[in-house]
Amino acid sequence: MHAAAAAGQAGPGLILLARAPARASLNRKGYRMLSVLRSIVQEVNAAQNLDQALYIIVQRVKEALDVDVSSVYLADPGTCELVLLATDGLDPKSVGRVRLTWDQGLVGLVAERAEPVNLGNAPEHARYLYFAETGEERYHAFLGVPVIYNRKVLGVLVVQRHSEARFDEDTVTLLITIAAQLAGAIVHAEVTGGVSTIQAAKRVKDSRPLHGQPGAPGVAIGTAVVIHPYADINGIPDRKVGDSAAEQERFLAAVGMVRRDIREMIERMNDSLPAADNALFEAYLLMLDSDSFMGGTLERIRSGNWAPGALRQTIQEHARAFESMEDPYLRERAQDVRDLGRRVLQRMQDDTPKKRSYPKDTILVGEEITASMLAEVAPGRIAGVVSVRGSRTSHTAILARALGIPAVMGTSDLPVSLLDGCAIIADGYTGRVYINPSSAVSLEYIRLRREEAELSAGLKGMRDLVCETTDGIRMPLLANTGLVSDIRPSMTSGAEGIGLYRTEFPFMIRERFPGEEEQRQVYRQVLESFAPRPVVMRTLDVGGDKALPYFPIQEDNPFLGWRGIRITLDHPEIFLVQIRAMLRASIGLDNLHLLLPMVSTVGEVDEALALVRRAHGELVEEGEAVKMPRVGVMVEVPSAVFQIERLARRVDFLSIGTNDLTQYLLAVDRNNPRVADLYDSLHPAVLRALMQVIEGSHRQGKPVSVCGEMAGEPLAALLLLGMGVDSLSMSASSLLRIKWLVRSFSQKEARSVLRKVMRKESAAEVRDAVTKAVEIAGLGGLVRAGK
Predict the structure, then answer these.
(1) Least confident of 392-396, 605-609, 627-631
(2) Which end of the chain, C or N, has fewer beta carbons within 10 A?
């Protein structure tokens, strides 16, 4: 890739170009320039608006490179022109007046080629275009470099000199570096725009919509209400106190008030949510009462810290433990921990928090919208959620899906501070956010929302229908869950069981490994909730970057490290206690299925099965009426794909974790925004791997389930149906939509679509082909707003 284009992948943070020749050629002056570059980036990131940011850029670049002119041209998405928006050296009156198309002038040449143009005598070049109003006839040397962000040319950074001599290599390299670092800062400044809410909203309105992650499907149209965190818990200092008893009383009183607040939330949401969904807030109460939260904070107070400081230490410790985890669902639990801490802190600071009013069709907007913030708004007044942080696995998104409220998460470029009171549209299907949309956009989304309401009303009638294809092939749909509080009753979702229950949480909320009886009680709740329907429990999947606070693991590459079945086999005392707890929890229910994670060799399966049989035998000898459960393997690493028949011969079923499998097959960290667009489960290589797993398992007579995000994505589900997968497990909010898809196709039709897409060479081509098939079948409402 071209140096400028490669550099353009970087965000606003400071990096150096990884090019040995350029790095080797940097002299003392070059290093001084890089110090100046750090300063420029910091100043630009602190700019209040785009104009100020651009002025800082041209002024500081001119000083740093000792040139006569420094200018910035930015692309106007509305006119497809490059506009001179800032200069230090040319006539200031030319700013905003000089415009070039991409096939005009030397600036257009830089943008067109997406590479530097370095000339000693610019007027002699065939593409030179003279603008009398700039006064640039005095300058001969010209150096222009593209400003690139996420492969898109945003504009051109130009420096000029009187002398007729090309710029040296150090200057070229440094200007490329400056442009690369400033790209992200310019994007941020461009979005946050002018000095007032009206100017900022107008600037955003005239540009393309902002983009985030789909959090909950649907279309929200309403008024932005910006929500701020209750208290800045990270800003609380440590402070020594003499009367620790008084501080303990202060902390306990605050916890009591927060406990009362949460119970009021539960009562308020009773009419809007099923009991199991409302139990999300019961988890907050459990956290408040946990030894690690209460005991840890009280111990820190007894050690001499004041109550707010002790609380901050406890919250930060727990949040760090969650944030370091690989599993996106568990990583998002850090948000819940911080939210709980802020609420307790607020009660310590002010025991009468102010209530605010919410207009009709409120769309909550904030840096971090929490589930409890959402619950504070009367259900009849909230239309949607837009959050800068978070993803579809955050509790906010989970609750929004349960309430049927559209949500867009991870909108990193959202100018939150300027949006309060603005008209806003949030598209929960695409992750697009429109600020002060045009009348044409508003009318279109009003129509789409009306159609969507009609579609959703029709889907409710499918809840109790059998999920089978038009040619009679049954496709059981199951639910994925993580916490006991997240379990949704099958009567409201239509789930035929639990296809993946993550067992990590009981291990994470304690300061030690939970005992056998503690685990048994948790597992029993889950198994009873769905009995006699099956519950697939994944054995402990920690290790690497998903370390427990009391069992830390430091590794250079945690994604390929000591985790999952590897750690539990190395510590059979942990594995055996968990298996015993699961088997005892299943007594009289017999709906337990065990799932082994991160399996990469057949030897691991043999060892794990030996331990399961050992635990079963011990319990039988102790007089427990336990039964041997069905045992399965999770297919999530490439080595398991290529040993699938050997693995299938050893177990009762297989479950494909498409999130990790896609990540490992494509060598893409799905949580890294620089490469996030490369992560696509519809990549032909992923589809071929899935087919190999399903075909190999079926040759051994073993059923295959898919429990990753693919199962709940309509386009992917159609292809999985064509591959012959035996069941799908997903977020309960996706169940009715997937049921509609399955009941609208025959397996023969799904296989025909699969055969067509397997000839495609890219994920984009696959996606387009399947979308066309879904649209032709009249199911376009599954993949976009409207019917």
Answers:
(1) 392-396
(2) N
Express each pLDDT in 385-410 by its tens digit: 998 877 765 667 767 876 778 999 88
Write the DSSP symbol of residue 372: H
Contact indicator for 261, 230 with CB cutoff of 8 Å: no
Q: What is the pLDDT of residue 161?
A: 94
Asked whether residue 131 carries a pLDDT value surpassing 90, the answer given is no
The phi and psi torsions of 393 (rounded to 5 degrees) equal -95, 0
Q: What number is the average pLDDT over the span 260-268? A: 79
- Would you give the DSSP letter of residue 92? G
Measured at the alpha carbon of residue 522, what is the angle toward residues 519 and 524, in degrees to the nearest 5?
Answer: 105
Is-cis flag, bond preceding 359, omega within 30?
Answer: no
Give whole-number Cα distances, 591 to 220, 286, 381, 578, 585, in Å: 40, 26, 41, 17, 10
Q: Residue 267 in contact with residue 209, Cβ under 8 Å?
A: no
From 140, 422, 616, 707, active-site residue: 707
The sign of the CA dihedral 554, 558, 563, 567 is negative
**Averaged pLDDT, 737-756:** 95
Average pLDDT, the chain: 82
Residues 452, 462: Cα–Cα separation, whole Å = 16
β partners of residue 365: 226, 386
* Cβ 278 vs Cβ 269: under 8 Å: yes
Of 470 and 375, the structure prediction assigns the larger pLDDT to 470
Query: CA–CA separation, 306 vs 207, rounded Å?
Result: 49
What is the CB-side half-sphere exposure of residue 457 using CA atoms within 13 A? 6
Distance from C-alpha of 84 to C-alpha of 96, rounded to nearest angstrom: 6
Place of tokens 């992948």: 9
Give buried/exposed letters for 302-315 (b at 16+ CB in 10 A, else e).
eeebbbbbbbbbbb
Q: Tell me the CA distances in angstroms from 368 to 67, 335, 431, 568, 583, one per residue in order.
A: 44, 8, 16, 35, 40
Q: Which of 187-196, 211-220, 357-366, 423-432 has the lowest mean pLDDT?
A: 187-196
> pTM higher than 0.85, yes or no?
no
Of 140, 395, 593, 683, the active-site residue reads 395
Q: Where are the beta strands (DSSP E) in 436-532?
A: 477-481, 498-502
**Nearest to 88, CA basis, from 123, 110, 64, 55:** 55
- Determine which helix (DSSP H) or strand (DSSP E) holds 604, and give its type and residue range: helix 602-621
Token output for 695: 């075909």
Q: What single-letter amino acid sits at 196?
A: S
Nearest-angstrom CA–CA distance, 164 and 155: 25
Q: Which residues have a Cβ under 8 Å from the Cβ of 771 and sit 6 or more positions away?
A: 715, 783
What is the percent of the chain where pLDDT is above 70?
80
Q: What is the DSSP string of 237-261?
A: PP-B-S-HHHHHHHHHHHHHHHHHH
- Of residues 557 and 668, more confidently modeled: 668
For residue 160, CA distances in Å to 144, 170, 436 come to 9, 15, 40
Question: Please, are residues 590 and 625 in contact by the beta-carbon 8 Å criterion?
Answer: no
- pLDDT-derived band at 75 (thresholds 50, 70, 90) equals confident
Tell me whether residue 318 is one of the annotated catalytic residues.
Answer: no
Q: Is 707 a catalytic residue?
A: yes
Mean pLDDT value across residues 472-489: 75
CA distance linking residue 532 with residue 590, whole number of Å: 8
- The answer to whether the CB of 509 falls within 8 A of the CB of 290 is yes
